[in-house]
Amino acid sequence: MRALGLMATVPVATGVSGIRTATTSSVQKTTSRNSFCVLVPSETPGPFPLDLTDNVFFFRQDIREDRQGVQLRQKVRILGTENCEPMPNVRVNIWHCDRNGNYSGYGTELGQTYLRGYQMTDANGECEFVTIVPGWYPGRVTHVHFQVHVSTSYSAVSQWTWPHPETVAAVEDHGELYPQGPDPMTPEQDGVFADGFALQMADLTWDSAAQEYVSTYEAVVEGLGMNGVGHLERMTAGVIEVRQNAPNPFARQTTIPFTLNQPASVRWSIWSPSGVEVHGSELGSLPAGEHRIAVDLERMALPSASYIYQLVAVTSEGEFSVVKRMTHLAI
Prior knowledge:
By secondary structure, the chain is mainly β. It has helices at residues 164-172, 231-237, and strands spanning 30-31, 36-37, 71-80, 91-95, 116-120, 126-132, 144-151, 154-160, 205-207, 212-221, 240-242, 253-260, 264-271, 277-286, 289-296, 306-315, 318-327.
């Protein structure tokens, strides 16, 4: 199985020269449908970040593993500051502590991987994770870390929290799952959010039918409602340019157009959001020029869902890959 190339090569902000993170200096006041389109405040990647970029294992929706806690379906939507439009095909990393305040990969949890993962946003700038309502630890309010990889030259890093009464109620209503009890700290008392947290507040509601909490968080990052371009993207574009499939979303069939700027051997694949390759095929050696892939997910017997598609072009200079997301609608 070939790992998702672009996802596996984008560097994280920590310790990488040239990566820019979001700052409030470039805030714009454009009005969007839901709110003023204001850049999310930047926060440090810590505590306890791990570099997920070299491990396709973390490309998954369900990040719980064996962690106990009440189920949380977390939806994330990413918008661009410059036009308040959705940002499709950007990668969203999230990580948070378990019910006891522990982070995987550190201290006694070294080698553990729970409660970490990444997804790609769809045409509406949205992605979704299945996790648990986090616990807390001294000095911090209940929160989630996230990182939005717009390109190899720009990565926004921040955190979100929830209204204090809602997190307290979630823990108290499921006390058997949270031996530490509810979080004693409010967002106002957390020094990380001392500069304000209005743009870092998600909602939290109980879905009795699904027996889970549902949360939506919307973040605004630098951009035009499209992917950014960094050094690796420019190198890849010199070999292969992959455009968004059309139509998208689609009911039965769609087409993936791409351009080879030099001859290359091309492979394409489809991945489920849970990180499983569900289709892969070799297109063989192709000449430079325009090409199209006809996609019929019904004929492939794939159910209606969002999928990731990847094209990998191989030349004497190496492998160059592009990843995008498409949505197959129910008929």
